[in-house]
Fold this sequence. Notes:
Blueprint: H1 2-18, H2 22-31, H3 39-58, H4 68-86, H5 94-106, H6 111-139, H7 147-166, H8 171-201
Amino acid sequence: xxxxxxxxxxxxxxxxxxxxxxxxxxxxxxxxxxxxxxxxxxxxxxxxxxxxxxxxxxxxxxxxxxxxxxxxxxxxxxxxxxxxxxxxxxxxxxxxxxxxxxxxxxxxxxxxxxxxxxxxxxxxxxxxxxxxxxxxxxxxxxxxxxxxxxxxxxxxxxxxxxxxxxxxxxxxxxxxxxxxxxxxxxxxxxxxxxxxxxxxxx
Length: 202
């Protein structure tokens, strides 16, 4: 029974993550605008994903417990390029890409660096969610922000809590997923709230 639950959680997480950012990307492309999307939030999320992936690789955790992260990183990069494009500054993405690529090689140089980065990445991810929340509170407009994307992110955090408990038991990772679950639910409800407000205003 435990093996079946683990398999379901792993594969459903992969399936959801394969399409996680697609509603957001399609909304941005359809509107030809990145309105409602916080660029700092996106950059911080990407940094958190990168550190998390590097940490998992460094400690050689089972591949199925983090296989979605390369997919999420690719989708975030695409969304980031769309945001820069529709804000009229594609070249502005180059320094960020350079820093992300360099950090991939610097992080595993010493064990203390990767451990510190992993602990900081939880704070970075929290900052990412709060940056999006702050943007929503400030504008009171969810714009092209996809509630489906955020709710799917909450689902993947919930399944990863289960898989972490059942496989590695890594407390740092478990804490991260619990915090991210709560914040993803918060962002989802905020997006839906401002969407309803916008509909009433119309």
